[in-house]
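Quick one:
INPUT:
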């Protein structure tokens, strides 16, 4: 079992920045990949960014150049630095880990609005 606890999120104006963090605990030695997904009202959950255990990253086209995913193996955390935020980035952001199966955090709200 893997437990994921997210932090960060909140309300920010367009063009602003936020940083999300996710702390993993439990069977962390089984984690192959971690990432962030988001779900806006009335829309399906979508991939934002992922990072593998060997450091390979992948981003949705909509966030490339604005968001940066990073991991800290010593602290068992994965972070998402979000810059140049747009109203369309408003969503609930979920931390995700792949360790034999997918695990999800509880989600954290990000609202981009003036």
């Amino acid at each position: 079992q893997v437990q994921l606890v997210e932090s960060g999120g909140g309300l920010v104006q367009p063009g602003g920045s936020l940083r999300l963090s996710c702390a993993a605990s439990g069977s962390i030695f089984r984690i192959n990949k971690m990432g962030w997904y988001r779900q806006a009202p009335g829309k399906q959950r979508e991939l934002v960014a992922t990072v593998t255990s060997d450091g390979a990253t992948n981003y949705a086209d909509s966030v490339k150049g604005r968001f940066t995913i990073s991991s800290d193996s010593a602290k068992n955390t994965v972070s998402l630095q979000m810059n140049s935020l747009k109203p369309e980035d408003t969503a609930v952001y979920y931390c995700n880990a792949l360790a034999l199966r997918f695990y999800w955090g509880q989600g954290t709200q990000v609202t981009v609005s003036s």
